[in-house]
Specification:
It is built from twelve helices and nine strands. It is an alpha/beta fold. It has one domain. The relative contact order is 0.20.
Length: about 270
């Protein structure tokens, strides 16, 4: 189970739900402040994100829905969820808190960027990606482990031995969310962030989505053009599902009003969606 005590200097924020998954109203700098505080004082924090793909997967996967709900913070990754909630009359949602932008900001932070462990990537690629990240951000990573592992216990031991304060898990969805949920009580690093495919972007292998493209909600198109073979079919499937599910949801607007969550609330198994 993932522990979700939030030690941020902010007291609370609003959690909305769209298409059955949570979306939190927390700006990028507030998330960085939360990570910095947790890395220093050791209170466990899990940061995940919601987007069209995860909403589609979670619709048929109760375990993934639970993992997203149990996260301390669940950020909108891309403009699709933000735009949907805005259509439902929700305001104050962050525009700048996507997974890639969060990872980039954390690696640039003098406090949060220290003691980072990278988990994910192909065995022959992960060390090279880690080296490029170290050079690009002028940091020394606590450790790196590729994502094609079977020995969970061994990975947990190596994370603990590294002394890492922040674990960036780029295992893809839903694996990274389920892995962080399953092993939350055993992960020594107090900050755990599900980052998807962010490593290749922050390593400079792929470009960040330009602000203008992001402003118009076309991140999905930009990423698909960069990786058509990997993302093409998934994007078509997600877009078709998202359009139909959004139309149904806008009629009910279930969860759009949001509930307050924050620094002094602890969620555990069984404390799920409202």
């Amino acid at each position: 189970m993932t522990s979700s005590v939030s030690p941020a200097p902010i007291s609370a924020w609003r959690r909305h739900r769209a298409l059955g998954v949570p979306v939190d109203t927390l700006a990028l700098e507030s998330v960085v402040a939360l990570v910095r505080s947790a890395a220093e004082n050791g209170a466990p924090v899990t940061i995940l994100s919601s987007n069209a793909n995860k909403a589609r997967l979670a619709a048929g996967d109760p375990a993934l829905r639970a993992a997203l709900e149990h996260a301390t913070v669940c950020l909108p990754d891309g403009m699709s969820m933000v735009a949907l909630l805005r259509l439902a009359g929700v305001h104050g949602l962050p525009r700048d808190a996507s997974g890639v932008m969060l990872v980039d900001r954390l690696l640039r932070d003098p406090v949060a960027g220290s003691g980072v462990f990278l988990l994910g990537g192909e065995p022959e690629v992960a060390p090279a990606v880690a080296s490029r990240i170290e050079r690009r951000y002028d940091i020394e990573l606590a450790g790196v482990e590729h994502g094609f592992f079977e020995d969970d216990e061994g990975v947990l031991e190596r994370i603990a031995a590294s002394g890492a304060r922040i674990l960036l898990a780029g295992l893809g969805s839903p694996r990274q969310e389920l892995w962080l949920e399953r092993w939350g009580d055993r992960i020594a690093a107090p900050v755990r962030v599900g980052v998807g495919g962010s490593f290749s972007v922050v390593a400079g292998e792929r470009r960040l989505v330009p602000p203008r493209v992001r402003r118009f909600g076309l991140e999905w198109a930009y990423r698909t053009i960069q990786e058509p073979r990997r993302l093409g079919l998934r994007t078509l499937r997600n877009n078709a599902w998202f359009a139909a599910a959004s139309a149904r949801w806008l009629v009910s607007r279930e969860g759009a009003h949001g509930t307050m969550v924050g620094a002094r609330r602890t969620r555990s198994f069984g404390d799920g969606a409202g």
